[in-house]
Design brief:
The protein is α+β, with helices and mostly antiparallel strands and 151 residues long. The chain is built from five helices and four strands. A four-stranded antiparallel β-sheet has the order 2-3-1-4. Helix 1 crosses helix 2 and helix 2 crosses helix 3.
């Protein structure tokens, strides 16, 4: 599906998505119109999903990140749907992942400090439906966080 030029284009685009088609075209050796058409095709195919701003939540005063590993009551047929519906409404939950196995879900939660986290944990997390087990893992450092793929 992807040819070598598409791969070159994606490599450049991942590192500099802010560039316009003209600048990107120059970097990969294409005419600007051809580059724009290829980008449009990659978007239409769902390969390029979005351009987005990545906000540094620490710069906004959030100093604590906790991963919560949760198990849900699987005897309840709508446990996952109901839990996810309610968890999405907690603004400090910045990521929700589901798993197969002993752990059903992982929430990534941010807080301004430990007092704020404790308040969130008690008032927003523990009140989420169908939780049977919860384990908190305090983040110490993010070693790698990279969405650039080897294309």
């Amino acid at each position: 599906m992807l040819d070598d030029m598409d791969r070159r284009l994606l490599r450049q685009y991942q590192h500099a998505p802010h560039l316009g088609p003209s600048e990107l075209a120059e970097r990969v050796g294409l005419a600007p119109a051809t580059c724009a058409r290829r980008l449009d095709r990659l978007r239409a195919a769902g390969i390029i999903r979005a351009n987005r701003a990545v906000v540094d939540w620490r710069a906004l005063g959030y100093e604590v990140e906790v991963s919560l590993r949760l198990a849900l009551d699987k005897t309840q047929p709508r446990a996952f749907d109901e839990f996810i519906h309610h968890a999405r409404n907690v603004p400090e939950v910045i990521e929700i992942q589901t798993f197969l196995g002993r752990v059903d879900l992982r929430l990534s939660v941010i807080a301004r400090d430990m007092a704020h986290y404790q308040q969130l944990y008690r008032s927003a997390i523990l009140t989420l439906p169908h939780i049977t087990d919860i384990e908190a893992l305090m983040h110490v450092a993010r070693i790698k966080s990279d969405e650039v793929l080897p294309v």
